[in-house]
Specification:
This protein folds into two domains: 1-31; 34-96. The chain has five helices and no strands. The chain is an all-alpha fold and 102 residues long. The N and C termini lie far apart (67 Å).
Length: 102
């Protein structure tokens, strides 16, 4: 418990920034009209490409006997890829709605 409190004390500014980002994100998303939720969410899912790159870096820097880091990196790559592909599928589906029908 002492180590956890010390970690919080050392990273207090970072914790405040993350908390403020959460509240700001909720405020921004809450004010978006419902018509724009689909493109906003598909764009946010496309940002998960950064997660994929980060997971690949973690897996590349991990020791070959560190199975936890390798497993979490592999899981992050799989889930990030699914999220990116899903975002593009949703965007494609949304754009199909605006095409003229024959």
């Amino acid at each position: 418990m002492e180590g956890f409190l010390l970690w919080i004390d050392q990273h207090q500014q970072m914790i405040y920034i993350v908390a403020l980002m959460i509240f700001l994100g909720i405020e921004v998303i809450g004010r978006v009209p419902s018509v724009l939720h689909t493109p906003l969410m598909s764009g946010a899912n496309a940002i998960h490409g950064v997660v994929i790159i980060g997971a690949i870096i973690v897996m590349g820097k991990a020791d070959s006997d560190n199975y936890l880091a390798l497993a979490l990196g592999f899981l992050a790559v799989i889930l990030g890829t699914l999220n990116v592909v899903g975002g593009f599928v949703v965007t494609d589906r949304m754009l199909e709605m605006f095409k003229k029908k024959k």
